[in-house]
Every structure is written in C-alpha cells, then in structure tokens.
Amino acid sequence: MILTSVFGMPLELVLVILILLIIILFVGLVLTFSKLQRISRKYYTLTSGKQARDLEHIMLSRFKEMDKVKARMKRFSKEHRTFQGHLDSCYNKFGLVKYDAFDNMAGELSYSLALLNSENSGFVISSMHSKEGCFSYAKEVIKGESYLALSNEEKEAISKALTIDEEIQKMVDETEQEDIM
Fold first, then answer.
1. What is residue 49's predicted lDDT score, i.e. its pLDDT?
2. Are the C-beta atoms of 117 and 90 separated by less than 8 Å?
3. Is 129 helix (H, G, I), strand (E, B) or coil?
4. Which has the closest alpha carbon to 111: 124, 125, 98?
5. Phi, psi of 89 (to 5 degrees)
6. Model pLDDT, residue 13
7. CA angle 113, 119, 120 (to 5 degrees)
8. 3-class DSSP assignment, residue 85
9. CA distance 26 to 147
10. What whole-number distance in Å separates Cα of residue 27 and Cα of residue 125?
11. What is the mean pLDDT of each run of 10 residues along the chain (181 residues)?
C-alpha cells in the first residue's frame, strides 16, 4: 500500500511544508550560531590578556570606591541626625516689631523681638526707649504662649515668629513663579 495522503492532505504538500520548516529552522540555527560567535569573541577579548587584568583592577577599584562612599554616607547620615537634634533646640524663628513706646518719642526706637525654636518655645525681649532712658524686659514663651502678661507689640512679635515659615514659603513660591514667567 502506497501512502498518497497524510492528515487528509496530499503527500507532496506535506513534504513541501516539512522542507520549508527545515529551511526556516536551519536559518534560525545559523543566526543563533553567528550571534554566539560574536558574543564569544567579545567575552574572550574582555577576559584575556592585559586588558582583562586592567578590567579586573578597574572593577575592584570601583568597588572599593563604592564601599568608601557607603561608609561616608553612613557617617554623614549619623552627623545629620546629630545636627538635626541640635537644630531643634536652636532659635530658628523670629519676629520683630518696632514702635514708639511713648507719644513724645519718634523714630520707632522701641522694639519687641521674639526668638522661638521649632517647638515654639523661647523668649521675647522688649526694649522701650524714652528721653529718660531705655528699659528692657525679657519674658519666657512656652509653646507659643507666655505666662506673663504681654503687650500688643510682644504678642505681634510672637505672632510674626510663629508665622515666619509661612512667610518664607510664600516668598519662595513668588520667586518660583517669577522664574517660570
């Protein structure tokens, strides 16, 4: 018995399809082999001779540099945390109000100055100038409040100190807007 069809198709058609598949697979094999040869040549060039020792030296020196950078970053991070702790206790907010304390004075020689830390604690100093002399007072401020009676100027100085972050941010935003335009 001679086979004339496979899977309901003529035998000649099946043979043509198989030959085409073999050719396609052979072309794929040749392309893969040529790529492998190029990669092998590059790898051999990279890892052989004096250049390979240079490459190894360069890689090892870069790794050492990276280790040094990591160590520096750890040290800087630790120092940053230390400085941040110190900054929290520093006076970083201020408010100044100048005024005439007495009617017969001019030039706004009197002032109230509030200095606060990040927890809004600190002090307010008031200095009142008159023809007879200068009188200075200091009052403690805890979390934005004083347990002593405050003058309107002292309250205004504390208020300015409490809102200085907002004022600075507003100025930064305005500058950025001007830069955009």
1. 62
2. yes
3. strand
4. 98
5. -95, -5
6. 87
7. 25
8. helix
9. 93
10. 90
11. 73 90 97 95 74 74 92 90 78 88 76 88 90 87 86 88 80 79 67
Strand partners, 165: none
By the 10 Å C-beta count (0-12 exposed, 13-18 middle, 19+ buried), 128 is classed as buried
Sign of the Cα torsion 164, 149, 137, 120 reads negative
CA angle 135, 114, 129 (to 5 degrees): 20
Among the listed residues 119, 116, 135, 118, the one whose alpha carbon sits nearest the alpha carbon of residue 127: 135
- Predicted structure pTM score: 0.50
pLDDT score of 25: 97
pLDDT score, position 67 = 93
**What angle (nearest 5°) sits at the alpha carbon of residue 47, between those of residues 43 and 50?**
140
DSSP 142: B
pLDDT tens-digit series, residues 95-122:
999 988 777 767 778 899 999 888 888 9
Dihedral, CA of residue 136, residue 142, residue 148 and residue 151, to nearest 10: 60
For residue 173, the tally of other CB atoms under 10 A from its CB is 10
Which amino acid, one-letter code, is at 18?
L
- Give the pLDDT of residue 52: 58
Both tokens of residue 103? 């009617």
> How far apart are the C-alpha atoms of 37 and 40, rounded to whole Å?
5
Nearest to 125 by CA among 90, 96, 88: 96
